[in-house]
Specification:
The protein is of the alpha/beta class and about 475 residues long. The chain has helices at about 5-15, 20-30, 50-60, 60-70, 155-165, 185-200, 210-225, 225-235, 250-265, 290-295, 305-320, 325-335, 340-355, 365-375, 385-395, 400-405, 410-425, 430-435, 440-460, 460-475; strands at about 35-40, 40-45, 75-80, 95, 175-180, 205-210, 240-245, 270-275, 300. The N and C termini lie far apart (about 60 Å). The chain binds adenosine-5'-diphosphate (ADP) and magnesium ion.
Length: about 475
């Protein structure tokens, strides 16, 4: 029997299926379509750029083994990224990722990165009137329902989110408003709804946006006389996720335009999801007619998780990071950090960073130090910006130089370190890290992380850099 793309892929799948969890298989492998086989190169179609990134990041080794079994040691994999949300166009939008001419590195030689879709639209204002349209959903697959731990404090919001994701626009939870204090998972749930909908309904147009960015876009639209384009753009979205609507307080112009967009979407059976740090009754300076709309669907509160849930969140995070930690330490953290899940995660990230770079054990002493620091310094979040500033300062270069295109070795190293820490200490996707650190693409970030890992193992001086910066970032 001769091999075809389909038979080769089926054989790979049955191997992969035996090696990963059913849910992961379903999510990341079932949607892949084999399209072409030529000599030892298999082309597979993946639904989005995120998908491709995710595969590269998490399953590349497995894919490699599977493919080499079928096609021999020179096997190559080519991704064909289907554009998300090809809008009103009959032709499929496919983007070939041409073979890399970089030297293959070990464990990497089946991946053929780069040149992702350049036509992708970042600026929504380009879209109106154009037939072939793609909207970048602004979703981060690191936020999903699988890694959102359920507890009494979030059960309603989580279940409503899942219901909405299963039937966007088709439940009575429209709009779904998720509200609660800082760091309790509002953004996580809003994102997870979007991510899940994209998994289930690849052709739905989903957009996640903060109310702040929405406001800024609106202001720009007014300035450039394109208010109507702005409205049209938002009216063609199937699932609109607006984060932190409390930001609209007092901004009557933006509220007004949002009111019209909301009505249009709602009347057309489109889904709207909102988050806010306050319950609708407590929102100030939001117009009554808008508030009453918010109450049409379901308002679900996120409360502070109880002790057991905090323990589960910590354990789950450790499990995902492949780190083991003594129970008494996990309990110590859960006992002392009560009101903010972001801080809970922050303590863990600091602990893991400290312990791994300084080859320290997880001791109660270390835990106490870090927890104290967090309790004093509440609401602290390591941002990519903070990481870049810290790294620049450490190497005594300015931020602009770090982000510049220069190929000078010590600056490249500093930039790679910033990317490495951003990946390690934030939830940002590779693409978003790249965009923020000198407008690079996600493959550059992936490469930076690998380089830093290699150098840390082989180069003593470099290892010292990593340790010093870790200290600066975590203490
Ligand atoms: P908010 O938007 O409410 O300020 P986020 O959604 O940013 O909060 O959540 C803060 C952090 O805590 C995120 O990293 C998120 O993934 C994590 N988080 C919050 N709740 C949970 C949960 N129940 N399970 C797992 N992670 C959670
Ligand atoms: Mg948030």
């Amino acid at each position: 029997m001769t091999n075809t793309a389909s038979t080769v892929w089926q054989a790979c799948l049955s191997f992969i299926k035996d090696n990963i969890k059913p849910q992961a298989y379903k999510t990341w492998f079932e949607p892949i379509i084999p399209i072409k086989l030529s000599a030892d190169a298999l082309t597979i179609q993946v639904p989005s750029k995120f998908f491709y990134e995710w595969l590269e990041e998490h399953y590349i080794k497995l894919l490699r083994v599977a493919l080499v079994r079928e096609l021999g040691k020179d096997a190559k994999l080519i991704y064909d990224v289907r554009m998300e949300n090809a809008y009103s166009s009959k032709q499929p939008h496919t983007v070939k990722i041409p073979s890399s001419n970089r030297k293959p590195m070990y464990g990497q030689n089946i991946s053929v990165p780069l040149e992702l879709n350049k036509r992708e639209l970042r600026n929504p204002f380009i879209i109106p009137g154009i037939q072939k349209v793609k909207i970048e959903s602004q979703l981060n697959p690191n936020y999903n329902f699988d890694n959102f731990i359920e507890g009494d404090a979030n059960r309603l919001a989580r279940s409503a989110g899942i219901a909405v994701a299963n039937k966007p626009g088709g439940t009575s939870f429209n709009p779904l408003l998720i509200y609660g204090g800082v760091g309790l998972g509002k953004t996580h749930i809003a994102q997870a709804i979007g991510v899940e909908i994209k998994n289930k309904y690849a052709d739905k147009t989903v957009l996640y946006i903060s109310a702040e960015k929405f406001t800024q876009q609106y202001i720009d639209a007014v300035k450039t006389n394109s208010r109507n384009d702005f409205i049209h753009f938002y009216q063609m979205i199937d699932v609109l996720l607006i984060d932190d609507v409390q930001f609209l307080s007092g901004k009557t112009g933006t509220q007004d335009v949002f009111f019209h967009i909301f009505n249009h979407l709602h009347q057309n059976g489109k889904q709207v999801v909102l988050t806010s740090d306050k319950a609708p009754v407590d929102m100030q300076d939001i117009e009554q007619r808008l508030l009453s709309r918010f109450k049409w669907g379901l308002s679900a509160e996120l409360q502070t998780p109880d002790f057991e849930t905090r323990i589960s969140i910590l354990q789950n995070k450790l499990y995902r990071d492949g780190v083991e930690m003594p129970d008494e330490i996990i309990e110590y953290i859960a006992k002392h950090i009560k009101s903010n899940v972001r801080e809970l995660e922050g303590v863990l990230i600091s602990m893991i960073a400290q312990a791994s770079f300084n080859k320290k054990e997880f001791t109660l002493m270390l835990t106490k130090q870090i927890v104290d620091k967090f309790v004093k310094n509440t609401n602290r979040e390591i941002s990519i910006e903070h990481i870049q500033k810290t790294v620049s300062k450490y190497f005594e270069i300015d931020l602009a130089t770090l982000q510049s295109k220069t190929r000078k070795r010590h600056i490249v190293q500093a930039r790679q370190l910033a990317m490495f820490f951003a990946k390690r200490m934030t939830k940002a996707s590779l693409a978003s890290i790249g965009a923020q650190i000198g407008k690079r693409d996600h493959a550059t970030v992936l490469h930076a992380c690998k380089t830093v890992n290699n150098l840390t193992e082989t180069d003593k001086q470099f290892r010292k850099y990593v340790e010093d910066i870790t200290k600066k970032l975590t203490f």
